[in-house]
């Protein structure tokens, strides 16, 4: 009997695909750039399983073109690039990789937070530019974390991990989310629930950790920036489109808030002629939240295990549309 065919849309960390080796005929897209949509459309007609990334548009047309497609496995926790409804309509399970990237992404959030608060990137550039003449009382002043208020928007896995890391910094931590957590969880995490607008008004640092959806698209735009303190810093390691880039540019340019740090942008990659890149009070990293050797291997292995389960007609260990099984 011939093995099921799968298409993997990029080269993954070595060993990540091990669980699939004896179970499937594997084609791996060899290029550095993701396959074009037209190529995906062609490939999907010949496969039983698709292992994809957040850079692939998996829309209704693509899903319906894959007549033999049995499973879609995404190597990411977010799945805003996949039309889940279309997959569910066809009873195709969609897998993701929650949990294994939580700590890495929370670590990066804190790295960006501290870089923005203490102007680390500007300082480093200042030294390399030969501008360091002497110790100066008012050179490159940032903001203290001790005593400040950290506002977490979206207290999911990563939001919680960010909150846990705050405990050593003597911060007040407030959060808003769709659902308020129990008093026990709030106490254990040392967080206080507030309404979204109040969080925007009271926070010195605001960090975004919601999933991207219709409700959270441009959740932060002109009206929300207008509520923030002039000294506020915004961190986004969730998804670029949660922040309106035009509003962010106007706000940072006019000094209406102090600074921002983004690991994700709208669009990605950010175009080199984007006015955002001209701003000194903005730090941007290229979507590296989960980019550690250990985490990426765990994500690849988890995605491979999800795919394998789908090929074997077993429930996916991590499935975003489990309703297909009922
Ligand atoms: P998660 O556990 O599902 O948490 C997402 C949280 O967002 C949920 O707790 C949910 O709150 C909240 N939320 C959803 N819609 C909301 C809304 N309209 N208003 C307020 N809160 C809302 O997911 P996670 O594992 O923490 O990951 C969060 C996101 O981070 C992912 O979706 C992904 O896009 C992004 N991410 C980025 C990187 C990176 O490389 N930069 C890496 C990993 C993940 P409730 O629980 O209250 O409903």
Automatic annotation (TrEMBL):
Family as reported in the entry's similarity comment: Belongs to the D-isomer specific 2-hydroxyacid dehydrogenase family.
Every D-isomer specific 2-hydroxyacid dehydrogenase catalytic domain range: 6-321
Molecular function via GO: glyoxylate reductase (NADH) activity; glyoxylate reductase (NADPH) activity; hydroxypyruvate reductase [NAD(P)H] activity; NAD binding
EC number: 1.1.1.26
Species, as recorded: Gloeothece verrucosa (strain PCC 7822) (Cyanothece sp. (strain PCC 7822))
Pfam families the UniProt entry points to: 2-Hacid_dh (PF00389), 2-Hacid_dh_C (PF02826)
InterPro entries xrefs: D-isomer_2-hydroxyacid_DH, D-isomer_2_OHA_DH_cat_dom, D-isomer_DH_CS, D-isomer_DH_NAD-bd, NAD(P)-bd_dom_sf
Cellular component annotations (GO), alphabetically ordered: cytosol
Enzyme class label: oxidoreductase
Coiled-coil ranges from the UniProt annotation: none
Domain D-isomer specific 2-hydroxyacid dehydrogenase NAD-binding: 111-289
Protein name per UniProt: Glyoxylate reductase
Keywords: Oxidoreductase
């Amino acid at each position: 009997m011939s093995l099921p065919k799968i298409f993997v849309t990029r080269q993954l960390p070595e060993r990540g695909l091990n669980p699939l080796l004896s179970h499937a005929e594997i084609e791996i897209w060899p290029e550095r750039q993701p396959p074009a949509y037209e190529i995906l459309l062609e490939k999907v007609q010949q496969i039983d399983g698709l292992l994809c990334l957040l850079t692939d548009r998996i829309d209704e047309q693509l899903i319906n073109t894959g007549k033999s497609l049995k499973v879609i496995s995404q190597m990411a926790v977010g799945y805003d690039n996949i039309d889940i409804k279309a997959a569910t309509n066809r009873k195709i399970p969609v897998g993701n990789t929650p949990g294994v990237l939580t700590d890495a992404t929370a670590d990066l959030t804190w790295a960006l937070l501290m870089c923005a608060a203490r102007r680390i990137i500007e300082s480093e550039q200042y030294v390399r530019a030969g501008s360091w003449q002497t110790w100066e009382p008012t050179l490159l002043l940032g903001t203290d974390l001790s005593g400040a208020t950290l506002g977490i928007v979206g207290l999911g896995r990563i939001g919680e991990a960010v909150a846990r890391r705050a405990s050593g910094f003597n911060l007040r931590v407030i959060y808003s989310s769709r659902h308020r957590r129990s008093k026990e969880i709030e106490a254990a995490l040392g967080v206080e629930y507030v309404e979204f607008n109040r969080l925007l008004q009271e926070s010195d640092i605001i960090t975004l950790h919601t999933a991207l959806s219709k409700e959270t698209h441009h959740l932060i735009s002109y009206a929300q920036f207008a509520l923030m303190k002039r000294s506020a810093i915004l961190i986004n390691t969730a998804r670029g489109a949660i922040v309106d880039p035009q509003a962010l540019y106007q706000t940072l340019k006019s000094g209406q808030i102090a600074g921002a740090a983004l690991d994700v942008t709208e669009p990605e990659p950010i175009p080199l002629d984007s006015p955002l890149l001209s701003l000194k009070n903005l730090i941007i990293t290229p979507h590296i939240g989960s980019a550690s050797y250990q985490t990426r291997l765990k994500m690849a292995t988890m995605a491979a295990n999800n795919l394998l389960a789908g090929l074997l007609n077993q429930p996916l260990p991590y499935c975003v549309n489990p309703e297909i099984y009922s």
